[in-house]
Amino acid sequence: MPLPDGNNFIEKFAKSFYNLFDTPATIIKEKIVAPNQKTYPWYHQKFRRVPTIDQCYTDDPICVFEADMQYRRDRQVDSEILSILRQRFEDCVLYETPDHMEKCKHLLQQYEEGSTDWFTKYGDLGAYHDVKVAYMKQKHRMVWERRHGPVGSGMKEN
């Protein structure tokens, strides 16, 4: 006559021996490790947004450094987005070769608009620039537009 499950002495001993090691490890994992673990639902780390350079005090080097690092990350992201747009257009041209001018026109327009926006923000700054240089470029552009109208429209008459 077989014994019911759980009444066997060897099974009870093996289960209690297992629980002797498993229970503390499970408690530590559930109560300490899991609540303090940083989990991201994406594959890259998401940095918190910091004050921009125009919100920093002039004598606060930490704020300026954080704004510069955020600017560099943003520029890198914008450059990658532009690279993806360019790659999409090139892939479309390769795939639709005979009549790619009409089938890939919307991708070319997206890429040209993106590259224009990228150049407006980051172009003509030189190889070694920081957030202050980019901020001054933006400020000078805004002053120009206030005085002369949108860039590229010619100078307005006074």
UniProtKB/TrEMBL annotation:
Going by the UniProt record, its keywords in alphabetical order are: Electron transport, Membrane, Mitochondrion, Mitochondrion inner membrane, Respiratory chain, Transport
InterPro entries assigned: NADH_UbQ_OxRdtase_su10, NDUFB10
The answer to keyword Glycoprotein applying to this record is no
A single GO CC term for this protein reads: mitochondrial inner membrane
Residue intervals passing through the bilayer: none
Localization, per the record, is: Mitochondrion inner membrane
Q: Name one Pfam family in it.
A: NDUFB10
Q: Which domain of life is it from?
A: Eukaryota
The protein's predominant localisation is mitochondrion
List the membrane topology term(s): Peripheral membrane protein
Query: Which PANTHER family does the entry mention?
Result: NADH DEHYDROGENASE [UBIQUINONE] 1 BETA SUBCOMPLEX SUBUNIT 10, NADH-UBIQUINONE OXIDOREDUCTASE PDSW SUBUNIT
Q: Which family does it belong to?
A: Belongs to the complex I NDUFB10 subunit family.
| Protein's name in the database | NADH dehydrogenase [ubiquinone] 1 beta subcomplex subunit 10
List the lineage, top down: Eukaryota, Metazoa, Ecdysozoa, Arthropoda, Hexapoda
